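Fold this sequence, please.
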Amino acid sequence: MTLKRRRIIFYSFVGLFVVITILISLYASGYTIAFRGLKNKYFLQKTSMLWLESEPAGATIYLNGQKQKTFYSKLLFQDQYFTTPTKIKNLTPGKYDISLELDGYWPWQKTIELASGQSQYFGTINLFKKDLPIKIMDAKVQDISLSPDGKFILLTTDNKIINLAKDQEVPLPEKEKLQNAQWLEGGKKLLANNLLLNLDNYQIQYLNNLVGEDVQKITCDQDGNKIFYITNQELNCFSLRNNKIDNLEIETGYNNYLVKNDYFLTITNQNKNSLLKIYSLKDKTILRNISLPLSNDYVLKNRGGKYIDLYSEKLKTLYILNPQNINPLITSISNIKTWRWFNDSNIIYSDGWAIKQLDISNDKNILITRIGREINDIFLGENYIVYATAKDLNILDTSGNKNSTNTILSLEEITTPVFNPEENTIYFTAKIGQQEGLYKMYIK
């Protein structure tokens, strides 16, 4: 080999080494050489990065329909792909269709736009189980109620209580009707008209044996430790802790009332308006009279915390009350169909076609998403929202900075589902195929 040829080979390798070194340095620094076709010019461009995590981990990552190989698997021609959690670096700026896929779970999809030099983090993305409903038992399609501790379900039409740990019916007297049912002591007891059922041992007591005959308009406090009732035109309180009866010395005759701490609230209708009255149980005096639009269907709801919900389905209006305030009417939401409290200052609610959030502390409304089908109810999980329409159940994942939705079940009819966020389980009655029943469905 001639000296000239050796020099050509030597300098070729040196040049190749320099080029490769530059390219690797640019790659490590987050740059790429971008080409703009018509002008035939190359220039340096800062790349972008995606940071993806999921619960559960191990999901395969697709960008624009393609699995993403790791850097070293590309160099070594191996089939090793990115799975969550991971960071994907050196992405050319532009539009990407992202998909996370994991066996047994619904895929997560989102379209994003990455700018030059941008790093985008989605937070921990929830992946939801792709499970079929499990039939617990035969039951008519009907309204159901879940106990606050998530251990029991009341079937209102079938007149049954179901122990969910055993998937068994709670034994009840044959002709006992579970009407106007209320869960007490966090789900440890159930009050239905005159019946008081202890769900720890299934023992039954009758309220008229504890407090006397002619008991009317029964309700309970927010913790379910006290029962309020009217007898002989007087408001009384029965404590489940010490079996003590107190006469609260408040005038009665109201169809709808609520007791919260030391306050008694009631609604009466006048000629042109409805009147909310707030009494002090300590002083036995009226503290406030608040005039409201006339409606005969106002319902007072004791949700716990410091606020009280006052809702009219006819007016589709929710009033938020704090009886301790000088001005008890905190705010109101018009055109509202269903709502859930996220915490003591935030409400997630729907007008039937959109899901929104109201921050009461600063009276700020935020649109979360719009839906093309009418929403019947919403439930809150950890970083996700379950919403039900007449025919399907859907999950809106709010864990990342981009919301995504999956339809997890579609049927001819879904009636009043209930949700246990502690176990990430939905319960509902439905007709699936030819089988009517009570079903459960795990979503995580």
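Confidence is low (pLDDT under 50) at residues 37-42. The chain is about 10% helix and 50% strand.
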